[in-house]
Automatic annotation (TrEMBL):
It comes from Caldanaerobius fijiensis DSM 17918. Its cofactor is [4Fe-4S] cluster; hybrid [4Fe-2O-2S] cluster. Belongs to the HCP family. Its EC number is 1.7.99.1. One of its GO terms (biological process) is response to hydrogen peroxide. Keywords: 4Fe-4S, Cytoplasm, Iron, Iron-sulfur, Metal-binding, Oxidoreductase. This is Hydroxylamine reductase. It is found in: Cytoplasm. It catalyses: A + NH4(+) + H2O = hydroxylamine + AH2 + H(+).
Length: 545
C-alpha cells in the first residue's frame, strides 16, 4: 500500500504498512483500485454525456465511491470488493450503450478495458494502479492534488444530493478531472490549470450545499449549545449528514431518548429547523480523534454518518452504528429503506437499554455565524473595524487531528491580540472554542460558521466585506488565513479559496506530503502559500509587526 492523502501520513511521507488512521493494507489497495475503476467510469460517462445517454445513477455511484475513500470514512474490505465489482459492471453497461450508439469504445485507457476474471486479481491490479504508478513526482503530485480535491467535492456533492440538490456541471467536471488524472498527454502546466478549475467547482459545490442546507433547514443563527448532559439515555450522532440527523430527531420524538451531537455535527444546532426538537440536547465531546474516550463515556449508541471514524475499541464497538458510505467490519450499518428513509428504530431501542451519558463538561458554546447571520451584523462589524476595535480577522477554519503539534492552534488563539476575531468552520474549532476568549463590543472573538463545508460562508463574508469597504482585492482586507488541514475535504476548501483569489494562506500543522517540491514551489510563488512556524513569530508575521 501507499497512501499519503491525509496530514497524519506516516513520517510525513506516506503510509506503507498500515495507515496511521488504522486503514489496513488490503483496504488501502482496494480503495486505490476503486478509484481506478471510477476513473474508467468517468472516461466512459463523459462520452455518454456527449451522446445524451448518461444516466443519473452514474452520478450517485461516483460520489458514493469517491466519498467512501476519504480518510476515516470506510474501513470495510467487503464494502470495497462489492463496490469495485459494481463499478466494473456499471462501466461495462455504459460501454455497451456507447457501442450501441455507434461510439468506438476500443483502445481507450486501461481503466476502461481492464476486465478481471475473478476477485483474486483485484490485489495484483491494485499494486499496479496506486499513487506510485505515476513515476514523475510532479505529475503524480498534481494528479493526486486533483483526485483529492475531487474526493472532497464528491463529499459535499453527496450531502447536497441527499437533500435533492444537484448540478450536472459539477458531475461533468468531476468526470473530466478524474479522466485527466490518467491522461499521459497532459503536462504539469495543464494539470496546474486543472487544479485551479477544480477550485472553481469546489466553490460551486459548496455554494450548492449551502443552498441545500439553508433552503431545507433555514439559515444558521446565533445559538448557545449546551455541552453538559441530561438524565435520559441518549444517542450520539457524528459526521456531517444533516438529513440523517433530521430523520433521527423525527424518530426519537417522544421516546424518552435524547440526541446529542459529536464532532462535525455540532453546527446542526445552529439551524432553525432543528430547534423545534426539545430532545435535541446538546453537543457531547470534541473533535473526532477524541472519540475513543468520549464514545466510551457516552454510554449510549453512536451513529456515524460520515467521517471521521476511528477503528472502534471493544468497549463501545457494539454500540456503534454506521450509515451512508461509512463502514467498518463487524459494525452494524443502517441502510436507506425502500421508501428512501432510514429506519433508526434499532438504535433507539438500543439507547433505551443504556445508561445516560457521563458528564465530561459543563457550560455552553456559541456558534451560528454563517454568512447570513454575520451579514445581518455587518454594520456592527464594519463599525468595529472602522473604529479600530477590530484590527484583524483570522480565518482558522479546517480540521483537527491527533498530532501533538496541533496544540499550536490553541496557543495561537490564546496569544492573539484581544482586538482580533477568529473566523472558523470545521472541526479545527475544538482547539479553541471553549477558551472563553471574550467579545469585542458584543461580537464574540470566535465566530463559528459551521462545518468544514461552511468555509464557503467565510469566503462569502470576506467578499461582502471587500464590497462594503470598496476594495478591489479581497487580499486588501484585514483578514489572515491560518488554516489547519487533515483530510481531503480540506483540499477542496483550499483549492476553492485559491480560486477565489485568496493569497498568503498558511497551512498546518504540516504541508501536504503529496505536494512535490516543485508543485509546492508553484503554490508558494503563485499564491503565497506558507506553513506555520511558532506562535510568536507567526503572530508578528500576520500582524505585520
Ligand atoms: Fe495514512 Fe492518512 Fe492514508 Fe490513513 S488516510 S493510510 S493515515 S495517509
Ligand atoms: Fe473534521 Fe474529519 Fe476535517 Fe469536516 S471530521 S473537518 S477532520
Amino acid at each position: 500500500m501507499f497512501c499519503y492523502q491525509c496530514q497524519e501520513t506516516a513520517r510525513g511521507t506516506g503510509c506503507t504498512l498500515r495507515g496511521v488512521c488504522g486503514k489496513t493494507e488490503d483496504v488501502a489497495n482496494l480503495q486505490d483500485l476503486l478509484i481506478y475503476a471510477l476513473k474508467g467510469i468517468a472516461i466512459c460517462n463523459a462520452k455518454a454525456r456527449e451522446k445524451g445517454i448518461a444516466e443519473e445513477k452514474t452520478n450517485k455511484f461516483l460520489i458514493d465511491g469517491l466519498f467512501a475513500t476519504i480518510t476515516n470514512v470506510n474501513f470495510d474490505k467487503n464494502y470495497f470488493i462489492k463496490k469495485i465489482k459494481e463499478a466494473l459492471s456499471l462501466r461495462d453497461e455504459i460501454k455497451a450503450k456507447l457501442a450501441k450508439a455507434g461510439v468506438n469504445v476500443e483502445n481507450l485507457h486501461d481503466s476502461v478495458s481492464w476486465n478481471p476474471s475473478s476477485e483474486k486479481e483485484f490485489f495484483a491490479k491494485a499494486g499496479q494502479v496506486g499513487v506510485l504508478s505515476t513515476e514523475d513526482e510532479d505529475i503524480r503530485s498534481l494528479r493526486q492534488l486533483i483526485t483529492y480535491g475531487v474526493k472532497g467535492m464528491a463529499a459535499y456533492g453527496y450531502h447536497a444530493y441527499v437533500l435533492g440538490y444537484k448540478d450536472e456541471k459539477i458531475f461533468e467536471f468531476m468526470e473530466k478531472a478524474l479522466a485527466a488524472t490518467v491522461d499521459d498527454s497532459l503536462t504539469a502546466d495543464d494539470l496546474v490549470a486543472l487544479a485551479m478549475e477544480t477550485g472553481k467547482y469546489g466553490v460551486d459545490v459548496m455554494a450548492l450545499l449551502d443552498k441545500a442546507n439553508t433552503s431545507t433547514y433555514g439559515n444558521p443563527e446565533i445559538t448557545k449549545v449546551d455541552i453538559g448532559v441530561r438524565n435520559n439515555p441518549g444517542i450520539l450522532i457524528s459526521g456531517h449528514d444533516l438529513k440523517d440527523l433530521e430523520e433521527l430527531l423525527e424518530q426519537t420524538q417522544g421516546t424518552g431518548v435524547d440526541v446529542y451531537t459529536h464532532g462535525e455535527m455540532l453546527p446542526a444546532h445552529y439551524y432553525p429547523a432543528f430547534k423545534k426538537y426539545p430532545h435535541f440536547a446538546g453537543n457531547y465531546g470534541n473533535a473526532w480523534w477524541q472519540q475513543d474516550k468520549e464514545f466510551e463515556s457516552f454510554n449510549g449508541p453512536i451513529l456515524m454518518t460520515t467521517n471521521c471514524l476511528i477503528p472502534p475499541k471493544d468497549s463501545y464497538k457494539d454500540r456503534l452504528y454506521t450509515t451512508g458510505v461509512v463502514g467498518f467490519e463487524g459494525v452494524k450499518h443502517i441502510p436507506v429503506g425502500p421508501d428512501g428513509k432510514k429506519d433508526f428504530s434499532e438504535i433507539i431501542e438500543h439507547a433505551k437499554r443504556c445508561q445516560p451519558p457521563v458528564e465530561i463538561e459543563k457550560g455552553e458554546i456559541v456558534g451560528g455565524f454563517a454568512h447570513n447571520q454575520v451579514l445581518s451584523l455587518a454594520d456592527k462589524v464594519v463599525d468595529a473595524v472602522k473604529s479600530g476595535a477590530i484590527k484583524r480577522f483570522f480565518v482558522m477554519a479546517g480540521c483537527d487531528g491527533r498530532m501533538k503539534s496541533r496544540q499550536y492552534y490553541t496557543d495561537f488563539a490564546k496569544a492573539l491580540p484581544k482586538d482580533t476575531v477568529i473566523l472558523t468552520a470545521g472541526c479545527a474549532k475544538y482547539r479553541y472554542n471553549k477558551l472563553n476568549l471574550g467579545d469585542i463590543n458584543g461580537i464574540p472573538r470566535v465566530l463559528d460558521a459551521g462545518q468544514c463545508n461552511d468555509s464557503y460562508s467565510l469566503a462569502v463574508i470576506a467578499l461582502k466585506l471587500k464590497e462594503v469597504f470598496g476594495l478591489d482585492d479581497v487580499n486588501k482586507l484585514p483578514i489572515s488565513y491560518n488554516i489547519a488541514w487533515y483530510e481531503q475535504k480540506a483540499v477542496i476548501v483550499l483549492l476553492a479559496l485559491l480560486y477565489l483569489g485568496v493569497k498568503n494562506i498558511h497551512l498546518g500543522p504540516t504541508l501536504p506530503a503529496f505536494l512535490s517540491p516543485n508543485v509546492a514551489k508553484v503554490l508558494v510563488e503563485k499564491f503565497g502559500i506558507g506553513g506555520i512556524s511558532n506562535v510568536d513569530d507567526d503572530i508578528k508575521m500576520f500582524m505585520g509587526v
